[in-house]
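Minutes, project check-in
Item: structure for the 188-residue chain
Input as provided by the requester:
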Amino acid sequence: MVAIGGAIDHTAQYPLSVNLNKENYFVCYNNVYFPNTIYHPVPGDRITSDRHLNVVIKTGQATAYTFSTTSPTAVLFKAQNTTIQQFILEEDNILQKPGSTIDRVVKIPPEWVIDGVEIFNGSSSSNVKRLSPAIDAGYVTLSTTFTGATLHRFVDEEATLTAGYEVLVDTNNSSNDFYEREQQSLHE
């Protein structure tokens, strides 16, 4: 589980909410680059500091989130033959975001990509595909935000039985791999 905002026990204030203050959870925000503590207070005490993901470069203007809350896209990758800190120092690896004079993007080599998911805003008719089909051939829609709806990856029941541990579906197409739950949940 990666918390992009409020890595605390939300059930203390909202009993039907979720507890994001758990061991082995990761925090994906940084109060230096994103100082808006309304959206991301100090992480809970059960999330150790080695689980705080470091923001190595700020490419946009946001003050609160490292991920969009209305139409996030995530790519998991692993740097090869360098560190990400070294990689971002090379000027050819940082590009101006198309259509923006301020925002930038980091150009990750395709061979570094492990997986990706593209999420469309369900209340918008202007969603545009951002990820290459080689990373995610489809997309999953989140119908609304801040109402408790959550996206979950399907479990591959057959592979789970064979492996002896939970195996998630990964067809390289988020349209097939994910579903939306109407009631907030971290796991079923």
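Outcome recorded: The radius of gyration is 17 Å.
No further action items on this chain.
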